[in-house]
Amino acid sequence: MARTISITDDMYRSFIDEELSKGRSLADIKATEVFKSVGGTFLRAATALEAMQDSAKNTTPARELPAWFTEWKNALINQVAQTAESAWFKLGAQIDQELNAAKDGFEASLEKLKARITTRDEQITNQESEIEGLKAKLDQLETDATAAATVRIQQELELAQATREVANLKAEAVTAQATHEQMVKDLATANSTLTARNQRITSLEGERNTAEAELKHLTGELAISNTNLQVITEAKDTLKSDLATANKELRAATLELNKLKPTYEQLQTTAKDQKAELNAIKKTLDTAVQDRATAIAQLNLLKSADKE
User: Fold this and answer.
1) For residue 7, how far is the Cα from the chain centroid?
2) Fewer Cβ atoms within 10 Å of its own Cβ: the N or the C terminal residue of the chain?
């Protein structure tokens, strides 16, 4: 990449001194000539030339600026000010356009994310209904197990084993419900409702034939319980899969937002830098205008002194 040469005021003065050494006068040297030969900006070239002309006035008789030069100088200052303002308006409009485009993209991504979350909430609500249905079935199983309290004492060990299996089924149901609570945080009371159903089977009395019949009935209910346990396990796996999918979509949406954020921040930084640069240009123009006004006032004073 080519190296940029910084133009200094000394470079303008050196060129003007060279021209003076050739026998030319300061009045013969034009700001346009200095600007084209040295470079930089026309305003700085004109300022350097006028500074040397002002310095020369301390040792040489004051010379009145021609009217055409004064008009040309004022027109030039107005033209520079208008060009700077026009550049700022165009630049400001471009910045606003880019910021609005980035904002629209961010809002569109946010709306898509909200729609996905709404869909996921509906799915979770449906799954909650299914969990409640499983809870009702489990409650019915516990009620049926309690009705088998008339089993004879000789079969107490076998009946206790069946009770432990029912308790294991309830524990697995509680685990499935706890997993769902962690995903939606809306079923805090379900665990206590399930665990409150655990009661000991007491008062095992009756005849051998009646006990055997009751034990056979309980064995059939236990088979139904195992089937319900499989349904609950499948529901739990489905909930885990849906949660993984939701987390994946949320991570993707977060990545999209993070990609937009550096662009938005870069646009803000660029806008601030460009605004600061324009303020510096405006300040320089204001200073130049003030210096020109001061120079004109001094010239008028010198003209008044010459007339006296």
Assistant:
1) 42
2) N
For residue range 125-171, list pLDDT tens digits in order: 676 677 577 667 757 867 875 676 566 767 787 868 857 884 884 78
Percent of the chain with pLDDT over 70: 70
CA distances to 52, 109, 275, 299 from 26, in Å: 8, 66, 38, 16
The span from the CA of 28 to the CA of 17, in Å, is 13
87-90 long-range Cβ contacts below 8 angstroms, 24+ apart: 87/278, 88/278
Cβ count within 10 A of residue 26: 18
Sequence-separated (6 or more) residues with CB below 8 Å from residue 76: 42, 46
Residue 41 falls in which region: left (phi positive, over 0), alpha (psi -120 to 50) or beta: beta
How far CA 207 is from CA of 20, 155, 262, in Å, comes to 137, 11, 81
Question: What count of other Cβ atoms lies within 10 Å of the Cβ of residue 173?
Answer: 25
**Which 8-state DSSP code applies to residue 58?**
T
**CA-angle at 144, arms to 136 and 234, nearest 5°:** 45
HSE-up (13 A, CA, CB side) for residue 64: 10
**pLDDT (tens digit per residue) in 26-67:** 989 999 999 999 999 999 999 999 999 888 776 555 556 687
Residue 160 neighbours by CB under 8 Å, 6+ apart: 201
Question: Distance from CA of residue 72 to its chain's centroid?
Answer: 52
> CA nearest 84: which of 282, 247, 249?
282
Work out whether the CA dihedral 179, 181, 187, 193 comes out positive or negative.
positive
What is the spatial distance between Cα 62 and Cα 246, in angstroms, rounded to a whole number?
85
| Alpha-carbon span 182 to 172, nearest angstrom | 16
All residues at 6 or more sequence positions from 57 whose CB lies less than 8 Å from its CB, including other chains: 63, 302
> What's the token pair of residue 188?
């805090």
Handedness of CA 298, 300, 306, 308 (dihedral sign): negative
